[in-house]
Amino acid sequence: MSLVIEPLSVLISEARPVRLSTSVENLRQSAVVQEQYVIFQLFLSFLDTFFHGTGGMLNRPDGTDAVEALAGPQGWRRSSEVRACVEAWARSQSLAGPQEAIAAEEQQEAQRLLSRVALRDPAHVAKRTQGDARFPYMCSGGRPKIGGARLTRLSQLSCIPKSCGRDRGCRLGFLVLSDLLQTVYALLEALDPKLRASVKPLIGDLLLELDGKGPRVEGVPDAVRAAVAAATASCARGWREAAERMDAWREAVQQSAVLAGLRGADDAPVLLTPLEALRRMQRAAQEGFAVQVDEAAALAA
Q1: Are 48 and 269 contacting, i.e. CB atoms less than 8 angstroms apart?
Q2: How far, in Å, CA of 112 to CA of 159, rounded?
Q3: Smallest Cα–Cα separation from 238: which of 159, 162, 163?
Q4: Rounded to whole angstroms, how far apart are CA atoms 127 and 270?
Q5: 247-286 pLDDT tens trace
Q6: pLDDT-based confidence at residue 293 (cuts at 50, 70, 90)
Q7: Using the 8-state DSSP alphabet, how is residue 134 labeled?
Q8: Are 299 and 3 contacting, i.e. CB atoms less than 8 angstroms apart?
Q9: Quick check: helix, strand or coil at residue 67?
């Protein structure tokens, strides 16, 4: 796992390309190094395809459809419709005016609700039920739901790209929605049972209200409305900050793939199968070349 976790940490925290450092001798003699070489090539191949998307690939080996289900044809490229939607939604939420003033007691209750829940737990964003990989937690089949209840009108939310909907789209296109629904569900679970029962049927309309897609919802306590609004703003802020780093991350991954010999700087990604990665390792050993040391960004094999 270190051959995945360590380079991923460098790529995300520092936006620098990574390389696997080894010698031809080690590559020829050590089965462990050979395995590391294959794993690293597969990792970079997948990550490069994920960020770039599958559009423009010259070949579509086994596994391409699986990556396309996750990243779509455009991935996180600047031309990506998914990325444009994420950025527009995050920006609109940050530009939204301040919430209406509420009583100090209600404001304190909103803060208490927010303090009681672990908002936007990354462990849940990565979850999915068995089945179609296109749809993350709380979005099975492309249909939003909270606590098992489907919220049909939520398909109108502006955080959902037009290419995504019931039984269509890619996982990237549903991640913001999944993140937002998890946040709201955590808040609902923090309410006392009687209040939760009365608010839960209204939560879909409340999200549409906060998104500017519906009228003010009556029957939602001010504290709950304020807490949901604050949680939504937190979600948007996180995605806005991620979008600001996306180009640097994508470029670092692309440079890593070029340094690993997976593709040229102007080429589309190359998605390797395990067999092709093994063959590349064998050629590297036989022909007498291996990836060289790249100072702090290199990972010693």
Answers
A1: yes
A2: 27
A3: 159
A4: 27
A5: 999 999 999 999 999 999 999 999 999 999 999 999 999 8
A6: very low
A7: T
A8: yes
A9: helix
CA–CA gap between residue 121 and residue 63 (Å, rounded): 28
- 3-class secondary structure, 165: strand
- Residues 66, 182 contacting (CB under 8 angstroms): no
Q: Which tens digit of pLDDT belongs to each residue from 114-143? A: 877 766 666 665 665 667 889 988 898 999
How many CB atoms sit inside 10 A of residue 1's CB? 6
Euclidean distance between CA atoms 37 and 26, whole angstroms = 11
Euclidean distance between CA atoms 106 and 229, whole angstroms: 14
How do the domains of the chain map onto residue ranges? 2-78+247-300, 81-245
Under 8 Å between Cβ of 206 and 220? yes
* Cβ atoms of 224 and 199 closer than 8 Å: yes
Q: Is the dihedral of CA 91, 182, 69, 256 positive or negative?
A: positive
Q: 6: helix, coil or strand? A: helix
Which candidate, 74, 68, 76, 64, places its Cα nearest to that of 12?
76
